[in-house]
Amino acid sequence: MKLMIYSGFRVELVKMKTLRQWLIAVISTLPFARFILKSLYSLAINRAKSLPAVHPEIVDIYLLSNLSDKNFVYGQSDLNIVLIIEDDAKPKVLLARARKTLRQIWPANVLIDLNKLPVLKESEFKTPLIRSHLITGSSRTVTKWESLVHGKELDFKVLDQGYFAKHYFHILMLEMFLLKEVTPRTYSKHWIRSYGKNVSLALEGLSRDGLINPIKDSKWKRYAAKLFGFSPFARIYFPSHRERTWKILDQDRPLFEDAVDQDTGYPEHLLSFLDELLKNPIVEDALIIPSLLQNTDKIKGKAFIDIILSSNRKDINKKDFRKLQRQVDQFIDQESKVEDAELKFDFNFTTITTLKLRQERALFTYPLEGWYRSQKAYSAKGRQYTFQIKKQCVEQAIIHFLLLQFMRFRTQKLATSLIGSKFMKSLNLMNRYTLILDYLSGKEMEIPEKYSDMMSNITPQLATYRSKDPVQEEDWPLIKSQLVYSLKKIRDELAKKHPTLKNLQF
Fold first, then answer.
1. Angle at Cα 375 formed by Cα 370 and Cα 379, nearest 5°?
2. Who contacts 37 (Cβ-Cβ below 8 Å, separation ≥6)?
3. Which of 132, 352, 403, 454 could cross-link 448 (Cys pair, CB 3.0–4.6 Å)?
4. Which helix (H) or strand (E) holds 98?
5. What does the angle CA 431 – CA 437 – CA 438 come to, to the nearest 5 degrees?
6. Is residue 179 within 8 Å of residue 349, measured between CB atoms?
7. DSSP code per residue over 36-78
């Protein structure tokens, strides 16, 4: 069975992993499905409890998912757990063994996301900053996690870092389900339900914490309930809900100055295309943000393009949206036919309010993205947007980024994404770490303009590597050691103000 999922204007086919996953999806469509699925989730939890008996180094397992929360959907939501292990245990070895055990246990192997299974040592889990990283969509000021081993609840108050983690998660959900747009007729009713759940959760969470204005649109709330409730008319409600969502996220007028000395190394056909997009009445502007490494004369690699929508000029509607989407799709199709293109494109939608929120609260995937954009963003309208970047938020973003990278190494996912890719991808990550170190240590920050500038920041042992060289499995230990070395230095810099981060053990 295949599902059509649209990501970044490109349709991809995603296969159901197993027949058992397909079975869960089918059950979720049946009458009284909730009761059947609830039993399967309970069975998965009970079977996960058996892990300490098989692996004694596991001292506890906490259920992070709140099954009684209205936003938890049986058949759609994962069971999120965290494994707590002895301080002397080897996390990666134990994680591999625990995954192997869980893969043999149904329905735990379907309902628990084994790829993102976090494992923490006891000392790490006791650290509030590290625990805060695990908070995502909870609306409570006090988080409650259930111990599957001891049957007790762990309560702790959500502090500033926890709120950052929640806001980061809200923006991530918007990016997955809204900012990267879907095309008509390519989404399933399951996707619509996930859209309704996650977009509503994100906007209500941002509104509740005062990051956007209170939501007064009663129709938006009613349509959200229909989408979330698996209404048979979900496809009818979806377009209206999406349009109203864009209006809710369009609360601010742009503040800008005339841009000076914008990069001119972009291909002429791209700039002409952006000029065409500006003729669409719902487009406020289009921004180009290049990847980190660039030559001074010609932009290469990848360019990220934000199309800024605005209802201040004209209400965002299906007709204008479809026209805009069709224009972008045609451009992408044309570019896909170009062999060995030096510049690739990734399109996203946004609004001034969303952009302001991400800039000022540092809610990008990279903590210094706001600073980088202020240096390198190209505006099709020749604008330099004004945002007040909050230093406290940047620090929270760096802590969150550090913990994300730490978890990636723990879960053995980073090697998978880098092995087989060009060395340039690893080098970009190394230099992202270096820029964060420069920021934390108060050094003057400079964006590397040449390959040699980037190579000067890393160990001489990597000096023989070229940007297009594929990373082989035997190369990974050296690349990993450079990355871990930089992450440890970031941890140590942050630990000057937050000593408990020393508990992070790479």
1. 90
2. 24, 27, 28, 74, 75
3. 454
4. helix 91-103
5. 90
6. yes
7. HHHHHHHHHHHHHTTHHHH-TTEEEEEE-S-TTSTT--TTTS-
Q: How far apart are CA 112 and CA 115, in angstroms?
A: 9
Contact 88, 56 (CB under 8 A): no
Instruction: Give the domain ranges of the chain.
Output: 32-158, 165-248, 256-359+369-385, 413-503
Identical fold, 32-158 and 256-359+369-385: yes
CB–CB of 58/52 below 8 Å? yes
- The pLDDT confidence band at residue 278, using thresholds 50, 70 and 90, is very high
pLDDT tens by residue, 398-408: 999 999 999 88
The strand order across the sheet containing 378-379 reads: 343-351, 301-309, 283-290, 378-379
DSSP element (H, E) containing 283: strand 283-290
d(CA 152, CA 282): 52
**Residue 39 neighbours by CB under 8 Å, 6+ apart:** none
Tell me the C-alpha distance between 414 and 485, whole Å.
15
Residue 286: both structure tokens together: 């289009």
Alpha-carbon span 353 to 284, nearest angstrom: 12
**8-state DSSP, 499:** G
Distance CA 309, CA 271 (A): 18
Task: Convert the pLDDT of each residue in 44-71 to its tens digit.
Answer: 888 888 899 999 999 999 988 877 776 6
Determine how β-strand 153-157 pairs with β-strand 142-147: antiparallel
Burial of 205 (0-12, 13-18, 19+ CB in 10 A): buried
Q: What is the pTM of this model?
A: 0.87
The fold of 256-359+369-385 is: Beta Polymerase; domain 2 (3.30.460)
Please identify which residue in the block is written with the tokens 């001074």: 296
Count of alpha carbons within 13 Å of 260, Cβ hemisphere only?
A: 1
Sign, CA dihedral 5-7-11-14, equals: negative
The fold of 32-158 is Beta Polymerase; domain 2 (3.30.460)
* Cα angle, residue 485 at apex, residues 454 and 128 outer, rounded to 5°: 120
Can you list the alpha helix ranges (DSSP code H) found in 292-445? Answer: 318-336, 352-360, 369-376, 391-410, 414-418, 423-440
